[in-house]
Design goal:
single chain; alpha+beta; seven-stranded antiparallel sheet; 30 helices
């Protein structure tokens, strides 16, 4: 600033003793002109206090700052030379004072106490009077001093009038008149001819004249601002539009400061700023509309946890307006402690830049909504340039999804209960149907050993075959139920393909002879001999297909063909495509194609799609004529697909059918075989060497009691019968006390009072506790059940039983079990 000590000392040296009065004015941060320094001559000649409060002088000072050359101004009896001193930080005026000429004295004497300025003609000085010699000589001095002061820039205010391009005016307290400098009207682009020219630099006009250039929409606020100014003498600020010469409107910002006896006003052109603000506002509005269009609630909080932004979805979800939210904290918004706790829980401390997501239920207006809540901490630079940690959160209303999930859970639970009910029903039906079948088949088998007349034996054979057929149907239903529930676990053990296929054809010889059907096997050399797979399920598929072929053929032929080369099988093109394109296997596997070809009645094309559907046959008459449940092919399809294979059919009516399937097998060698097809089978000699046993049978069904007693007695064993599990436990304890131990216990699983599982566990517990010393070396317990479901086999193992026999009891299998457990 120019009033630095060094600068003032320079002025004192140059002008302190000068006969020319010199003054230095400085524009301060409040836009006030301050007298910084004056020499002795100026202090003697002028009334300094009057000079610094004269609005005319101050206005001339403003005007002088905009000139590149010194200007003159007549004040009282003196001529003032105004020399602007400007750098990038301040505005100053150096004033040289000379006595004015007699001509000017006589013209200006009547205007010293008036706001009316002398006419411009009165200020036309002679060239010799323009600048006195002393003043002219000193004009170079401020430039020199200014270069010194460039090193001392401490003022904050940046050349307010000249550098910032402001239009300035003065207004007295008691008159609604505005006095404009010449450059102000040019800056505002107002026609000068409508204003009164007071001096070379100044024009005047009424407030109403100025108001006529203001945009109609802005006039009211301009009037209110100036009325406030004149009435209360308060500083004002306002923004409005002013009409230019070309009839366009420009935006200006008005600032008025209150001085001692007058107002000083400034108008700054902010048209570009307003345009930029409008563009920015339009962009912000577009962004806000885009964010408001999102179905996700978005909030932004500052470092003090005050809401700085929310979108429309937040208003909708929380039933609060933006005005109610912005600027407030959660504590101010949510008075309910429960709701506050839920909202605050969503704002966990986290790592900047790391998004945290969770699902939460929030109770709002007496109802609960589910939200997926996201929380992100981010660094933001504030207006002061420092970094703060703000948070952004989003709330996605997932109430509908949660309701659907809940409905799906309930539906799934209902489905599970229904599946369990179905499983329980099948278990019960299996038990209830197999129990009488056990008696029928077992007794029919025993009767065959008696010497009976041929017609009686024929009737017994028919009874046995009918019972076995009924058992076959029950097994189909149980198998399908297990496949539907995905509870079938396939084995992956070595098997001899040719041996398994030949065995299937041998097992089918009896029904084929009955139908006068010839069976032929064609196993090509391309198939591997040893593969890994499930032999039992493979036989089930082949037997089902061969059995169907026999059933629907009369006096014909049934072929079983196997090959690794599909082109060798002479199949229909559509069937080839189905087998080769619906097959997925690893590179280690080799595809083997199986065909069961018959010369039977064939199937029309319309009926083929029904064949592999459960409980479905080609037509309604099929079931009546040939029997069956319609589950056989559906079971085959599910088993093949469980082995990653494919199955299909090609057929012509009255010519026959090709049922073909393909399965990928992993080849292996005979050296890795862990068992053979006949492993575990006992020879006749071994079975004949079976010693007589003391056997306890726990069975509640009297026909079955009679049957099992008859079978075991026929083998030469002693039999004790009890009716439930509790009696079985009591019998074992009694035998221990009597030192007459049982060799084996055959335990039915479904009995009243105490079932077989509980009885077995009780016996094992007594053994563990040492309460049955007679059985310290063990007591074999074999489960007898009419329920063939796999789950029951697992329960049998859990009850520490040693074996499992399914009703109807296979007599040969019973012999083998007894021999193995007691040898």
């Amino acid at each position: 600033m120019y009033q630095s000590t060094q600068y003032l000392q320079s002025l004192e040296t140059l002008y302190g003793q000068s006969s020319t009065g010199v003054l230095l004015f400085q524009l301060d941060e409040q836009v006030h002109w301050t007298l910084v320094w004056s020499n002795q001559t100026a202090s003697t000649q002028l009334n300094i206090e009057s000079l610094t409060s004269d609005p005319k002088i101050l206005l001339e000072l403003f005007s002088a700052t905009k000139e590149d050359q010194p200007t003159k101004y007549i004040y009282s009896d003196y001529e003032l030379n105004l020399i602007p001193l400007q750098d990038s930080l301040s505005s100053s005026i150096l004033v040289h004072i000379n006595e004015k000429s007699e001509q000017l004295k006589s013209i200006s004497s009547s205007h010293t106490d008036s706001w009316v300025f002398p006419d411009e003609a009165h200020l036309q000085l002679k060239s010799s009077d323009s600048i006195p010699e002393q003043a002219a000589a000193s004009m170079a001095t401020p430039e020199r001093l200014f270069s010194i002061e460039q090193m001392d820039k401490q003022s904050f205010y940046q050349n307010i009038v000249h550098k910032a391009e402001l239009a300035s005016f003065l207004a007295p307290f008691n008159e609604k008149y505005l006095f404009w400098d010449r450059q102000a009207l040019g800056f505002l682009d107002l026609p000068k001819n409508l204003f009164k020219k007071e001096t070379h630099n100044f024009y005047s006009g009424s407030f109403e004249l100025f108001l006529s250039f203001v945009h109609d929409s802005d006039k009211e606020k301009v009037i209110e601002a100036f009325e406030e100014l004149w009435e209360h003498q308060w500083s004002i600020k306002s923004q409005f539009r002013i009409k230019s010469k070309d009839s366009s409107y420009q935006w200006f910002q008005l600032s008025v400061q209150v001085q001692t006896e007058f107002f000083v006003g400034y108008l700054e052109n902010i048209n570009e700023q307003i345009g930029f603000q409008r563009q920015l506002g339009a962009r912000e509005k577009l962004i806000e509309q885009l964010i408001d269009g999102l179905p996700i609630g978005i909030v932004v909080k500052d470092a003090q946890s005050c809401y700085r932004f929310v979108n429309h979805q937040i208003e909708k979800d929380f039933q609060l307006s933006r005005a109610e939210i912005i600027g407030k904290t959660d504590y101010e918004l949510f008075q309910s402690p429960a709701i506050l706790q839920q909202v605050l829980a969503a704002k966990n401390d986290g790592v900047v830049g790391q998004l945290q997501i969770e699902e939460k239920s929030i109770t709002l207006l007496n109802h609960t909504e589910w939200f997926m809540v996201g929380h992100l901490l981010m660094q933001v630079e504030n207006l002061k340039g420092s970094i703060e940690v703000w948070s952004m959160g989003f709330y996605l209303n997932i109430t509908e999804r949660k309701l659907i999930e809940e409905e799906l859970k309930e539906a799934n639970q209902a489905a599970l209960l229904a599946a369990q009910a179905k499983s329980d029903f099948l278990s019960i039906m299996s038990h209830e149907i197999r129990t009488p079948l056990n008696s029928v088949i077992g007794n029919a088998t025993l009767l065959h050993d008696y010497h009976l007349e041929s017609d009686v034996k024929t009737h017994i054979t028919m009874i046995q075959q009918s019972a076995e057929h009924l058992l076959y149907l029950i097994n189909d239903i149980l198998d399908f139920n297990k496949l539907e529930a995905g509870k079938v676990e396939l084995e992956h053990k070595p098997l001899d393909l040719a041996e398994q296929l030949n065995a299937c054809m041998q097992m089918s010889e009896s029904p084929a002879k009955h139908k006068n059907v010839t069976l032929k096997t064609d196993l090509r050399n391309s198939i591997p001999q040893w593969v890994k797979g499930d032999a039992g399920r493979l036989r089930q598929i082949v037997l089902n297909l061969v059995g169907n072929a026999i059933k629907f053929s009369e006096n014909g032929e049934v072929y079983l063909i196997a090959s690794s080369i599909i082109d060798d099988l002479n199949l229909d093109e559509d069937l080839v495509y189905k087998l080769t394109n619906n097959l997925s296997a690893s590179s280690k596997c080799e595809r083997v194609y199986f065909v069961v070809r018959d010369t039977g009645i064939g199937i029309d094309k319309e009926s083929i799609p029904k064949l592999f559907q459960e409980f479905s046959q080609a037509n309604a008459g099929t079931s009546r004529k040939f029997g069956g449940t319609g589950l056989g092919l559906a079971i085959c399809k599910k088993l093949v697909e469980a082995m990653d294979g494919a199955i299909g059919i090609a057929s012509q009516v009255n010519k026959g059918s090709d049922f073909a399937f393909a399965i990928p097998f992993e080849p292996t060698t005979s050296s890795s075989v862990e068992y053979s097809a006949n492993s575990g089978a006992l020879s006749v000699e071994e079975l004949a060497s079976q010693r007589p046993l003391n056997i306890l049978v726990a069975e509640d069904n009297q026909p079955n009691q009679f049957l099992i007693r008859a079978i075991l007695k026929k083998f030469g064993h002693e039999v004790s019968i009890v009716n439930n599990g509790q009696e079985a436990v009591d019998a074992v304890v009694s035998s221990n006390n009597a030192q007459q131990a049982f060799d084996v216990v055959l335990m039915d699983l479904s009995m009243p009072e105490m079932d077989g599982f509980t009885a077995s566990k009780t016996i094992r517990l007594l053994q563990t506790q040492g309460d049955l010393p007679v059985y310290k070396n063990g007591l074999p317990i074999v489960a007898l059940t009419a329920n063939a479901l796999d789950e029951q086999k697992e329960d049998v193992e859990a009850a520490q039983m040693d074996g499992f026999l399914t009703k109807p009891i296979n007599i040969d299998r019973l012999k083998e079990v007894l021999f193995e457990l007691t040898k």
